[in-house]
Structure formats: structure tokens, C-alpha cells
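hiii, so i know i said id send this last week but things got crazy w the move. better late than never?? heres the sequnce for the chain we talked about at the cafe, plus the structure i predicted for it. fair warning i was half asleep when i ran it
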Amino acid sequence: MKKDIIIHGDVWAGLEFIKDNSVSVAITSPPYWKQRDYNFEGQIGQEESPEEYIGRLVTIFNKLRQKLKEDGVFFLNIGDKYLNQYGKSHLMMIPYRLAYHMVKDGWILEEIIIWYKPNHMPSSVKDRFTNTYEPIFVFAKRKENIYKDFYKREKKSVVEIPLQQTPWKHTAVYPENLVQEMLERVNLNNGDIVLDPFAGTGTTGIVVKNLRNGFLSKEVYSIMIEKGNEFVKIIKERVGIENIIQVREIPYTWHSAKEENLPSNIDSLPLVNDKHGEVHIAQNYEEFLSILKGMCTKEFKNFHREDAIYFVGVKEWNLQSLYYVHAVYKYGYVVRNMLVVSNGSKWYPIFMLSRDTTKVAYKFYLDRVRINPKIKEERDWTKEEFIGMKVRDISGKTSREGQVMEILDKYPDEFPKIIVVQWNGEASIEFVMHPEKDEFLMEGLRFFCPRCNNELIDPYDPIGKNICSFCGLELWINVETIPIIKEPQEILEYVNDLEKSDYLVGQIVDVVDFKIKKNGSFSKFHSLDRINWGASPGARKLVEGEYFTKMRLYRIDQPIVAQYLTLLRKSKNMRIQDVISKFPKEYYHTVGHWFRKDFGGSIPIPEDIKLLKKVFNIHDGLLRILERTALKFQTVKTSVKGKNPGDYIKNKNDEELSTFLKKLYVPSTEYLLTMCKK
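okay and structure toks below
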């Protein structure tokens, strides 16, 4: 073959078209399970279950193996998937389960390479580590293959290669440097063929072309199989291929992969060191599986709190280690992360596990391990125009949009602090959180013992006793033992300023009434001016992805709210049904959720608080705090608390690693005592 080829059609039909024992290297990244809909019938990745997806790929890759030369190799890049998008969801371990079934089907697994992405996509997740890497499996048809020489020589199983921007919308494109890195690990000869059965935008093809015309200088060619018409056009343009072969679809059958339970011939080793969590790095596969089996025992489950998290790793790992972790899902656990610990060339896994329960969220203190940004972002707010900027209100039952009508007060750096928002003929005064303080303000509530007035580090434990560590008072058992809750001084200052005026923050009034009353007492706030909305640069900022969002001012754990409302209800000798009866009919299925402390619970929105105040005849305390709203500036920025460190951990010794992981679950009081000793 003396030219590159595109086979336009289904992957099975495309593989059938290729001669057996003709391909030297296959390299691909197939569609991930439930990741993207390519809008054609029978597409791979939209199967009903991971087991169907795995079974289908095993069948396809069995056909691919027939096309490889006896010493050929197959580089497979595939990403993982969480069972659900939100909540305490299970990491499905799809890549490693697929690899396990491929080995059972006859493949030889030479290596698992970790591809770390230094410029990985940022994530707002707070209850686990951000995903920063993907595995690349090196499969061979026979023990003697063209990858062996490189592996014996280099033994490098970690690569750090940034994601590559492309002009196409297909965001799953893997970078050309990654493909080149893999192809440089084999000794290619003149006439060799490189196959990509899921070609996408043709990354493999362009790399083969560049290598052929560059330093490789060997007559190596590519075959790319692609079904999508749009992608075939991209490949043709990008790689410059004229030879396109159309193939008709050929029916084929596959079966779901049959998953296995933990092996029964290994003894259990239940770790019972700390009821809040465990960290243990096993030396080998047998010890690792013993720990997993130990986690399934009553002894282990009864000893640990339901909100504990566990970090279990294995240094001398094998494919079975990575496969059987998924089985813990059947025993009441979920895999939240597979951490990779690397010294730059070799790696081993550590799994973050938690109980699969909806009763309570696990304790995960991410803020303790965040990485400070290298460069502080600074913007000159004096050069920004905010008048006319969009404001999205998501604090109520339905969302709505408004515009910034006037700025009444500013921070010292000229960022808006108090503004007037127009909402379709209505207006309201709103407090704006500064972008450099918003995360701290939203989590800035402080709790104090009502007897000794000392600050409580852990304000509420939903599954244990709440005892003041200073005076021994048992908290949260009646309204007299509810902790005193204090807001940040900065919030109280603006509240006091606004309460001196005729308007309260967030209060909606008619725009006409607002302008009539604006000449009254506004403390330090000046009067309003009319605005030419069409000429406003602020109105165009939405195009740049910048706008304000009106939301609840404070982030507060739902179980705290549920316990607070429960104590208020009991103090009035009311049942939940009695509370429900005080609300309009549309609240019938809502109110009960406010008193639940499990994952079925919810927090009343600010407009609900007005009704709760009337029901309980209470207008202060947590109810008043829950009613507060503020505007948050929505823009692309680094978290002021620092960056999520991600699931790739580099150059930590055993002691450093253990200390790092324990920070994530040790209760706040114990953690502070430890830090004080240091």
C-alpha cells in the first residue's frame, strides 16, 4: 500500500475490508460510554449499560486482532465514566474492566501508560479530586512484538502531554504529540500500516503523514475507519487524503461482559484504625484484595462512621487489582477516584472509596489540600462597564433575567458593591460579592456555643453527638442549645447601611415607585440616573460569558437547616403535617423535604423563608440568614481558595502521602490540634 486510506463506514465493515495480518500498529480512542451522541443509529457508546459497551468493544477488538501482524501492537486510549452526573456517584472503572475482558479474550497486555494532561479541564467538584489523566493500554497479539525493545530500554509508563486545541468542535480529539509518542515506542519499517478504527478528526493520520515526511523518513501509511460524514470531510481536508473507500454495513453480534465478584480464596483483612477513615497502601495484589474483602465485613462497617472515606492503594499492582475494585459496588461502596501516584516514570493506584448511602454525605475537606494559584489574577475594574450587564436570578422557584440599572456603592478597587437591578418594570437593591472574596463570604458563617460562647469548629454532626469541646454542653437537642450563628462583619456592615434607607436588599418594588422614593433618605447612596441601555457595553458582556447571578448568600449544609427547623417545630409542639397544613397547597410535596437530613432533603429558598417566619413566629436567627441573597460575578477565574489538586499525585514519599490523604477526612477539631502541635 503506497497511500493513506479512509474507509467510510461502520467499524466492523471497515475491519472486514482490511486483510488479516497486515497492520503493524493500531492506535485509537473510541467513543466513551454515554459521553457524546454522534446522531446515527447503532453508534458505539450509547449502549444501555457499561457491560454491553465493554462486550461490544471486546468483539470489535477481537476482529482488530486478526488484522494485526504477529508482532503488531495496539495502543488503546479510553476514558472512564461516573454512573451518575451528580451526587455520590460510582466511578465505573470501565477502561480497566475492558482491558480485563480483552485479556480473557486473548490479548496480551504489555503496559498501562498514564497520560497526564497538564492543561486538563478545570472542574468545580468539591467532594472528590478533579480528573487529570487517562490510561493508554498497550496490547499485543504475541509475546514477541515490536513494543518489547522499547519497554526493556525505557520502562517509562507515565507521559505528560497537554491537550491540543483544534479548530473543530469535536472536543474528544487526543493530541498529535500523544500519538507521536506512542508511535515512537515501536520500530516501524517501510511499508508498515498504522490503523485507527475510530478515526474521528484524523489525528492518527496527520501524525503518520508528518512522521513519513519528517524525521522518521519511512514509507509508513495510515488506514482510518470513520462512519461520520462530517468527520470524513475533516480527515480528507486535514490529512489530504483522496482515496476514500465506502463500505456497506455488516451485521454482527456481541454479548454483555459478565462481571466477577471478589475472589473467594483470599482471606479478609479489616482495617479498624480510625472511625473517620483509613489510609493503607498494600504491597501486593493479595494484600490489596484482602483489604477490599475486609471492607465488606460487619466488623469493618460497624467500626467506621457512615461518612468515613477510605484510601486503599497497591504498589505492586496487576490488572486484576484494577478490575476487582469495581466489585466493591456490590458490597455497598462507591469508587470516587482512582488516584495515580507517580515518580515521573512509574506509577501505582490509590482508590478513594466511600459508603454507598443516601443518609449522609461523607466528610471530605478539600480546602486543606488546594493548590494556591501561581499567578494572582488582577483586573482593573475602573476600565470595566457594569451598567446594563445581565443579572440572572436563580434564588427563587423560577429563574428570571434583569439588568444592572445603577451602581450605588463600590469596593475600594471600584468593583460594584451595592447596585440597583431592573427586572421588567420592577427594581431591587442588591449586594454584590467581590470576586476575590465570594467563596469565603458564602462559607463565612461562624457557630458559637450558647453557654460558653466559644467558637465551634465542627458546627453540626448529623450522625453523632454534638458536644461543646470547651464546656461539655450537648448542642442541637432543643432551641436553647442551638448554637449562636454569626455572619461576617463585612455583610453586617452593608445590611446596617441598607436598613437605614427606605429599601431592604432584595426587596422588589415598582420602578416608578423606586424613582419617586429615591429622593428620600438613602444614607450614603446617591440618586439614580437614566440609562441608554442600547449603548451600554455592560449589556454586551454576556457575549463574553460574564454576568451576575442572584443566589442564596450563604452555602450551608442541608442537615444543619433540617435540624434547626426540626427544633423550631418541636418547640411549637407541631408535627410535620401541621407545618405542611400552614402552607399553600402547592407546597404539599415540598415542606417535608426541609426536615430530612439525608440526600432527599432540601433547603427552603428565600421566598419560602417568609412563610416559615410566619409559621414559627420567628424573624431572626438562621431563618433570617437563609433569606439573605447576593449577586455573584460569573466569569472564568481561578478559585480564590486555590485549585483542586487533581487525581495525579507526583513525587510524594509514603509518609508525605499518608499525611496528605488523612487531611481529607480527619475532623476539623482533631486536625487543628495536630497543626498546633506542629
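btw Residues 519-535 have pLDDT under 50 and may be disordered. thought thatd interest u
miss u guys!!
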